[in-house]
Design goal:
Structural class: alpha+beta
Largest sheet: 6 strands, mixed
Strand content: 25-35%
Radius of gyration: 14 Å
C-alpha cells in the first residue's frame, strides 16, 4: 500500500486518502487527496470530524505530505477546513490545499484540546 492512502476513521467519521491521477507524476509521491469526509447527520457537532482531521493532518505532517480536497458544502465547511490550515486554491469548484506543517489559524476549544494531546 502507498504511504498515506486508504480509509481513515474516528468514531462515525470517515474519509479516504487517495493518490489523484489528475496530478503530474512528480507530485503524486507527496500529495494526497482527502476524499469523502463523512459524518452521519446525527453525529455532527460532536468533534468526530475534528479528531479525524487532526489525525490525518498529523500523519500528513509526519510524511511531509500536502493534502488537497474539493469542498461541496459552502462557507461553513470552508471555514472548518481553514481552521486546520487548508487554504482555497480554486474558486469553482472550491479546491483547498494544506501544506505539510501548516498551522491552524483559529482553534475552537475542542481543537485546542486535541492539539494539546500531541
Amino acid at each position: 500500500m502507498d504511504v498515506m492512502t486508504g480509509k481513515r476513521e474516528h468514531e462515525t467519521a470517515s474519509c479516504n486518502l487517495v493518490v489523484s491521477n489528475a496530478l503530474p507524476l512528480g507530485m503524486r509521491r507527496k500529495v494526497r487527496e482527502l476524499h469523502a469526509l463523512i459524518v452521519p447527520e446525527q453525529d455532527r457537532n460532536k468533534g468526530y470530524a475534528s479528531q479525524l482531521l487532526h489525525d490525518v493532518c498529523r500523519e500528513a505532517d509526519e510524511h511531509g505530505m500536502t493534502l488537497f480536497l474539493s469542498v461541496d458544502g459552502g462557507e461553513k465547511l470552508i471555514a472548518f477546513y481553514t481552521r486546520w490550515g487548508f487554504q482555497p486554491i480554486q474558486a469553482k469548484p472550491v479546491l483547498m490545499a494544506r501544506m505539510a506543517g501548516a498551522t491552524p489559524r483559529t482553534l475552537k476549544p475542542i481543537s485546542q484540546a486535541l492539539a494539546a494531546l500531541h
